[in-house]
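Hello K.,

You asked for the raw outputs rather than the summary table, so here they are, unedited. I folded two proteins back to back in the same session to keep the settings identical. This is the first:
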Amino acid sequence: DGGRERHLVRLESLANLPMSVAVLMDLSSSMGRLARLAAESAERFFENVLIDGDVASLLAFNDDFHRLVPFTGDIDELRLGASGLQALGSTRLYDGIVWALSQFSGQDNRRALVILSDGADVHSDFPFEQVVAPAVEAAVVVYPISIVRSREEPPHSLARLAQRTGGARFVVSSIAELDRAYARIAAELRSQYLLVYELEGGELGLGPRAVDVVVREDLETRNLHGYYP
C-alpha cells in the first residue's frame, strides 16, 4: 500500500457476500441485430450469477441513457427488461460508463459493472481520463466485453479501465463466446477475497492510495489498484 508492505489483519472469501451487478449494453445503431442476441445472453448471465441477496440492473446507452431495469433480485423483471430492444443512435461509451457508475449510489454490496459494446467512443462529453477515477472511487470492478467483427481492433481504453479496477476485458466475436465470457465473469465474482490491514493515522485522508497484491508465482490475482481511505 503506497509502496509499503502491510501486515494482513484478516483474509476472507467473499463468495457468499451479496453483490450488486449492472450490465450496461450498447444500443447504438452499429449493434444492429446483435442487440437482441446480446440481451438474451445477458438474461442467461443474470440467471446464472444471481443468488439470494444479490441484486442486478440492466442499463443501456446510445446517444442517450436508459435504465431498463433498476437494481432488483427479480430475474423475471430483468428478463422482461431485456426483451424487445432496438439499436439506433451513436455510441456515447464514456458518458454511458460514468452514468452507469452513478447508478451504484446507495448500493452497499460488492459492486461490478459489465460493459457490452461493439465499438469505440463517439461524441462523449467525458474523456477517458475522467472515467477511471469515478470507477475507482466507487469501488466498482469493471468487466468490459468488446464484440468485434473480423479484423476489427477493440478500443484499448477499456482494457486499461478493467486493469485499474481489478476486472478483466474480454474480446468476443460470437454469441457463444459472449456466453463463455459471462460464465468467466460469474466465476470470478464468486472468487473474490477481502484483504484487511491497518493504516497509520497520518496516512489517512491523503487522497487515493495505490495498492499492489503479490501472490505465489503459480497463482494470478487482480485487484482494485487504488482506493480512497
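The second followed immediately with the same parameters:
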Amino acid sequence: MARTIRYFSALSFLALAFMACEDTIFPTLREAEPILVVDAWLTNKPGKQTIRLTRTQPYFENSLPPGVAGATVTVTDQNGVVYPFAETASGVYEWTPSGSEVFGQVGLRYDLSVVFGGETFVAQSRMGRVPAIDSITFFREEATQFSDEQYLAEFWSVDPKGSGDAYWIKFFKNGVWMNKPSELITAYDAGFSRGGNFDSANFIVPIRRAINPFDEDPANEGQFLSPYVVGDSVYVEINALTEASFNFLNEVRIQIDRPGGFAELFSTPLANVSTNVANTNANGSKVVGFFNVGAVSGLGRRFKSLDDLSGE
C-alpha cells in the first residue's frame, strides 16, 4: 500500500512540475515551398458550384491562404459532358447552371482537371446517394450539475439498403453553419464506421443528436447553454461522400480537434492528411486537397413553442 501511495505521489509531483514549467514558445520553423491546395466539394444542390484553389502557408501565418489565379478548371462526367469553372475572384472558380439545370447525377463518375503553371492536376469522384430526412424533433433534458434544463434537437433518417454509403452531416442554427472541429459529423451507413453493421437502419442516436451545439455559459463557468430555445431554427443537411472522402474528413477531424495543454502529450501526433488529387507528372509539383461529388438532402424546422417538444 505504501508503495502504491508513493507511486501516485510521484505521478502527482510530475504532473505539477509539468504545469509549473509551462511556457509559451514561438519556435522557428523551416520555410517550405507553397503547395497547391484544391478544395472541390461539389453537390447536386440547385445553384452555382464552387472550386477554390489556394496555396499552403507557414504554420503560424495568421491570415487567409492566398488564392491561385489563372488556372483552367473543368469537371467532366463519364459521358463526356464538360462543366467549365470560370474564375470569378482570385482562387475562386464557379460553374453557373443554365435555368433549372443542376450539377451531377447520382451514380456517375466525374473527373476534375486543374491546369496551372504548365502542369495538370487531376482527381476522380463518383456521386453517391443520400437518404431523405424524414423529420426533426425537439425534446427536453432535465437539469444536471453541468447545465440547467435544456432543449435539444434530433433528426430522423433511414440509411438506404446496401452497405457502403458514407455521409457528411452538416447542421445550421438560425441560418449559421455550425462548423467547429467538434461539430464535424460523419457517418458510414447509419453508424460511425465501416463494419458497424448499421445498413438500412435509422441513424444511431449519437449521430441523430450530434446536431446540438453545446456552448459554455459565459455567465456561469462550467455550465452549458441550452442548444436551442424557443424561436431558434435548425437545418440539417446530409451530403454523400466517397469512402476516400469519408476517411479524409475523419483524418482532418483528428488533426484539428486537438485537446491542447498537458493532454496534447497523449493525443494523436500531428500528420499530413490524405488527398485524392495528383499531378499527371509524377516528378512535378506536389498538390494537396480533395475532390468529392455527392448528392444532398436537407430539412429544416423552427422551435416555435414548448408544444413542439416530442412526447409532451
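The longest strand covers residues 133-141.

Happy to rerun anything if the numbers look odd on your end.

Regards,
P.
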